[in-house]
């Protein structure tokens, strides 16, 4: 019997709201690709992102366009040629790897030649808000070893100082989501240095970040929106010290593995990140976490409820997926 592809849309409420420089939302809307073959089922989850021109409808349609190819035996490596990077390819890629693992009994990490995954510490994200509310949120999360702080541009030095007051012992990453501007970046960098921030993610808009080639800094700067897959690495030269690899941007685990390998040869530090999704979206990314200096796979921690079965989180320690979830 030929393999059969189905696409579903699922909604998971966020605990409170998730706010970044581009806006706020109260639910995670995910698209799941499921491939069935002789009673065996493989799944992959993606999160369409408007910043990259994606909608739930467009991503679902792109996945469904591959139904015939899936039935005929499409492989993850075929996908690199057939589809562009993005959420749709990610869901299909991860579903194909999951199906193969369940069919053969060989874990995905082993098939890809990766090291066996082990528990890792993930960052925990603090949403953008006024300094007082962010300080309160930081105080509530101060027991966590690594916090990722969403910033918004104007007023960010006060936000950074407030979070540090609330969580004096936690390591801090800040993520501006492209909200800083050339006239404020020096002041913001100084505020980060004063607070002992360890990494600054995407301070300037993608395509408007040439200033990073010449600006003095003591804190590494990480590319997020400026880098999707291997094709974008050349443009990062002299601008960034690290990259945030997200499977939804790269278009799946297959490309993410190749991207991580190429980035390391260029001396770039790795962060493994995520969109706000469920454990099914985090599970494939955990296979790369052992290569990363920073892991940001806290999507399920931000939800009011996760899918079941899900990943095991013990505080900020996230364990590798069991086969009944993925891989």
Automatic annotation (TrEMBL):
Cofactor remark: Binds 1 Mg(2+) ion per subunit.
Mandelate racemase/muconate lactonizing enzyme C-terminal domain span: 131-222
SMART domains membership: MR_MLE (SM00922)
Top class in the EC scheme: isomerase
Keyword field: Isomerase, Magnesium, Metal-binding
CDD domains noted in UniProt: L-Ala-DL-Glu_epimerase
Cofactor(s) listed: Mg(2+)
Enzyme Commission code(s) on record: 5.1.1.-
Family: Belongs to the mandelate racemase/muconate lactonizing enzyme family.
PANTHER family hit by this protein: D-GALACTONATE DEHYDRATASE-RELATED (PTHR48080), ENOLASE SUPERFAMILY MEMBER DDB_G0284701 (PTHR48080:SF3)
Protein name per UniProt: Dipeptide epimerase
Organism of provenance: Methylobacterium thuringiense
Upper classification of the organism: Bacteria, Pseudomonadati, Pseudomonadota, Alphaproteobacteria, Hyphomicrobiales
Protein's gene: ycjG
């Amino acid at each position: 019997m030929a393999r059969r592809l189905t696409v579903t849309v699922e909604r998971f409420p966020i605990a409170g709201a998730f706010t970044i420089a581009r806006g706020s939302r109260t639910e995670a809307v995910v698209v799941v690709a499921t491939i069935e073959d002789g009673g065996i089922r493989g799944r992959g989850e993606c999160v369409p992102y408007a910043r990259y021109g994606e909608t739930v409808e467009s991503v679902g349609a792109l996945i469904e366009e591959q139904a015939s190819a899936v039935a005929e035996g499409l492989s993850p490596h075929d996908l690199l040629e057939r589809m562009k990077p993005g959420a749709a390819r990610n869901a299909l890629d991860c579903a194909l790897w999951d199906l193969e693992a369940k069919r053969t009994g060989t874990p995905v990490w082993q098939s890809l030649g990766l090291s066996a995954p082990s528990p890792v510490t993930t960052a925990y994200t603090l949403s953008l808000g006024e300094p007082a509310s962010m300080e309160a949120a930081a105080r509530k999360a101060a027991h966590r070893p690594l916090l990722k702080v969403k910033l918004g541009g104007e007023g960010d030095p006060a936000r950074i100082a407030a979070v540090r007051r609330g969580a004096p012992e936690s390591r801090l990453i800040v993520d501006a989501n492209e909200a800083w501007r050339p006239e404020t970046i020096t002041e913001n960098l100084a505020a980060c240095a004063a607070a002992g921030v360890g990494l600054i993610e995407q301070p300037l808009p993608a395509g408007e970040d040439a200033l990073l080639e010449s600006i003095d800094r003591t804190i590494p700067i990480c590319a997020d929106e400026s880098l999707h897959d291997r094709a974008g690495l050349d443009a990062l030269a002299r601008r960034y010290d690290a990259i945030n690899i997200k499977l939804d941007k790269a278009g799946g685990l297959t490309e993410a593995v190749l991207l991580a390998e190429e980035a390391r040869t260029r001396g770039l530090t790795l962060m493994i990140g995520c969109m706000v999704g469920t454990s099914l979206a985090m599970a494939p990314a955990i296979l790369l976490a052992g290569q990363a200096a920073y892991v940001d796979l806290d999507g399920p921690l931000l939800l009011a409820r996760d899918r079941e079965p899900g990943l095991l989180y013990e505080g900020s320690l996230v364990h590798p997926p069991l086969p009944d979830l993925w891989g």
